[in-house]
Amino acid sequence: MSAPLEALATPCALVDRARLEANCARFRARAEALGVALRPHLKTAKSVDVARLAGGRGIAVSTLEEARHFAAHGIRDQLYAVGVTPDKLDAVAAIDADVAVLTDDVEVARAIGARATPAWIEIDAGQGRGGLAPDDPRVVACARAIGGALRGVLTHAGHSYACRTIEDVARVAEEERAAAVGAAERVRAAGLACPGVSVGSTPTLAHARSLEGVTEVRAGVYVFFDRFQHAIGSCARDELALSVLASVVSRREDALWIDAGTLALSSERAMDDFGGGYGEVTRPDGAPFAQDLHVDALNQVHGRVVARAGALPALPVGARVRVWPSHACITAAMYDHYEVIEGGRAVARWPRLRG
Amino acid sequence: MSAPLEALATPCALVDRARLEANCARFRARAEALGVALRPHLKTAKSVDVARLAGGRGIAVSTLEEARHFAAHGIRDQLYAVGVTPDKLDAVAAIDADVAVLTDDVEVARAIGARATPAWIEIDAGQGRGGLAPDDPRVVACARAIGGALRGVLTHAGHSYACRTIEDVARVAEEERAAAVGAAERVRAAGLACPGVSVGSTPTLAHARSLEGVTEVRAGVYVFFDRFQHAIGSCARDELALSVLASVVSRREDALWIDAGTLALSSERAMDDFGGGYGEVTRPDGAPFAQDLHVDALNQVHGRVVARAGALPALPVGARVRVWPSHACITAAMYDHYEVIEGGRAVARWPRLRG
Fold first, then answer.
1. To probe the interface with A, which of B107, B249, B304 has the most A CB atoms within 10 Å?
2. pLDDT confidence of A335, banded at 50, 70, 90?
3. In this complex, do B269 and A268 lie within 8 Å of one another by their Cβ atoms?
4. Total domain count, chain A
5. pLDDT tens for residues B289-306?
6. Does A26 map to a domain?
7. Strand pairing of A242-251 and A256-258?
């Protein structure tokens, strides 16, 4: 199959295959240069095709639906990287794959240990979400409770998203490394095995200077990148691999309305401190409009496009435009397939898991 | 089937059947008292089961996927209430139902007329999205171009969402009525038939004082309502029919983290001017916590729960809570089914269309 973009029903999610492959290759090379394994986090793409292109050692997932889906497609080494609840352990055990779980809770660790479920201990490297401080005595208590099935300790430097300079990201990456390695050393000092040290986020893998003591790194959004990752310095503009094809449905003096609203773009406002907007709007081939168009308001199935410079271009109802989202993870989640494009044509359709 | 809420996998979308039925009955009665037909907008619920409970005369839909889905379930009278693009007319014609389209563009109206597709003309009653001003000469030009298949004129008073008093909503409802009826009169004064006058939004149907000259009213979110609709006076707190069941996955001094993040709640910030928050958090039975809990931050699969009053309750990892969303249309869109509850137990599972 090969079709011009004009033949696609809008709204739809476009994936630029050449950029996707280049992004995957760049981050594989980054991990290799830092001497660690790469474990792609499939919560962004939720696609077996993307998982195959990404390569790496195993995957991370964010839901049991993802774990089941990738298991059904033969991906065995999985890390369910959200704090597990005891009632989910039966479902984890029923998945035909090697699914390791995550916890920061001693009671839950006991339930995990009783079943010998492979598990990681979550360490907080400064994000303030899940995880124990590296020197919290409960780290060793969890390790003891989990017992022989302990895979290691894990951090996620989600606060790297708040950084606004590459220097700051590199500093957070070092804090993350130090927190994870420090926690592993405490477990080992207690006489327990702690084989794995897992860290990661797209910004910190992009800019970490050393990952000494780390065994693997997780990153997700790098496969597509997005305007936010571009704004904070994780990628170049021409590495963005995900966009939304939309049609003009109404023209006014002051705005164009397109058929891509909240359910096509998501209402993520990750770009608030970069001038806002729900997406940059270009021509279907990716070339910008001289008027610098962006989506500044959303309803469920309508997006409002305004110009930063001059009057709106004279686009008729039915004209196609391309929207470059702020937060690819959530925009992608609005679709059940990707239209894969190459050389300006749609060449494949990849299914995408929802859930 | 009947199961306690504790047996449901989290996160999941709960629909309280008794409240849903009462909401449907209340709005049917409201439309009847105002002397107009009710056309439920199924973009909120995207559920055949909800469509059956809602009753009314025909439905409105927001995507062609919805139109096909409801057609496949025998719902014939449909209004595709988003400005149609010419390339979508083939797809509309292929649907096995009576699907009327919407336009505010004379060129598109000609394409519609050439096919004799049933169509409505969109009038802007002050929202500033799609639609022509009631006195714009293009209203009559569109009517002429559509010809004998013209169904009528249509407004959507989306700006009623910006109202903060019931008095203001009633004023917008009257503006909407006057705009739609005025546009219909202009079409008729030009010697053309304009049988239908369609208006609507949940707030304006809740508070309109007269719909004289209107033939039908559309509303969508009233089947579930939400915290935003409660805040602006469309409903009572105990009419909220949609909520999300979630589990605590991590406990900290200052916050609980639950397994309901952006992909379970959506990142809609409709509540910004009511003190913010992505959802109110109660016990599984709907009883509030004395500490007045709400979700104040979201990641993809994590939500942060904080207390407005006092220290956090001592909930263990795995404890269930119920989250009451700000914007039901978008929260519901995150799910492919509803868990229907009655008397505190899950009694049915209703499929839900995505797309």
1. B249
2. very high
3. no
4. 2
5. 999 999 999 999 999 999
6. no
7. antiparallel
pLDDT digits (tens, 9 = 90+) for B165-180: 999 999 999 999 999 9
Residue A270 has what pLDDT? 75
B97 and B196 co-located in one domain: yes
| Contact indicator for B153, B197 with CB cutoff of 8 Å | yes
Give yes or no: residues B240 and B341 share one domain. yes
* A80 shares its domain with A158: yes
Asked whether the beta carbons of A299 and A261 are under 8 A apart, the reply is yes
> Closest chain A residue to B332 measured between Cα atoms?
A263
> Quick one: how many helices (H) and strands (E) in chain B?
11, 18
Whole-Å CA distances, A298 to B63, B158, B256: 16, 12, 30
pLDDT bin (cut points 50, 70, 90) of residue B276 is: low
Give the three-class secondary structure for B44: coil
The sheet that has B77-83: what strands, in order across it?
A: B37-40, B216-219, B196-199, B150-155, B119-123, B98-103, B77-83, B59-61
Model-level pTM?
0.96
Q: Which of A8, A66, A82 to mutate to test the interface with B (most CBs of B within 10 A)?
A: A82
Looking at per-residue pLDDT, the higher value among B210 and B310 belongs to B210
Q: Which domain holds residue A338?
A: 3-13+236-351
The beta-carbon neighbor of B268 closest among A104, A267, A316 is A267
